[in-house]
Amino acid sequence: MEDLGPQMLPTLRKLSLDDVIRIWAAMSEYTQQTLLMNQAVRIPGIGTFLVVEQQILDVGYSDVTVARPVFLLSETLADVHGLIFTQDNIPDDSAIAKLNYLQIATETDFPQRTVKGCVKEIAFSFCSCLAKRHNAELVFQDLGILVVQGKELQMRFYQNFLKSLDWTGKLLQTFLREVQVSLASPPHMEAGLCI
Predict the structure, then answer these.
(1) pLDDT (tens digit, 9 = 90+) per residue, 11-54?
(2) Nearest to 107 by CA among 29, 42, 20, 36
């Protein structure tokens, strides 16, 4: 953050680390709750989270429909930084919610403008790391970790989040068996930008 200059991150520079973590954690919680309502959420400058229905072959060799989380990286971000990632398509009937900065502001007791600035500046900081070819991790509390190593990007969802999407456990069992999704263990910190 030091080499970005004070004019590049005015909101983050005014907030304490605890304040930034609190805002990012509330944004992550909003994203998770919106996904659980089967709506997609676009994080400006980063990408879109959504839940898609997928037919899987259960251990008993019968087809089962499960809800699978997907992260779609912003195409602009991928193109600019030459990132390699698996690109799924957003189903035509998917409702994409914008971040509700007012709701996040209400939950954190910060002005809406501060919340919006914080989220956008974290996204900008993450993109700056990518521009410098740094490996980076962006933690979404209780949801997962967006990991960039070299030019490869991967969203690693937490097991508890997968269980909250599919209480039968078939989704988690299938993904563990077929390694179609990367799982992460929650980090020691609550939420934030881990670089």
Answers:
(1) 999 999 999 999 999 999 999 999 988 889 999 888 899 988 77
(2) 29
Overall number of domains in the chain: 1
Q: What is the β-pairing status of strands 136-140 and 192-194?
A: antiparallel
The residue segments making up the domain with residue 54 are 2-194
Q: In whole angstroms, what is the distance from residue 83 CA to residue 78 CA?
A: 5
Task: Indicate the helix (H) or strand (E) that contains 183.
Answer: strand 182-184
Residue with tokens 């997907």: 70
HEC assignment per residue over 96-164: EEECCHHHHHHHHCCCHHHHHHHHHHHHHHHHHHHHCCCCEEEEECCCEEEEEECCEEEEEEEHHHHHH
**pTM for the whole structure:** 0.79
Do residues 41 and 33 lie in contact, with contact meaning Cβ atoms separated by under 8 Å? no
- From residue 19, alpha-carbon distances to 12, 119, 131 in Å are 9, 12, 26
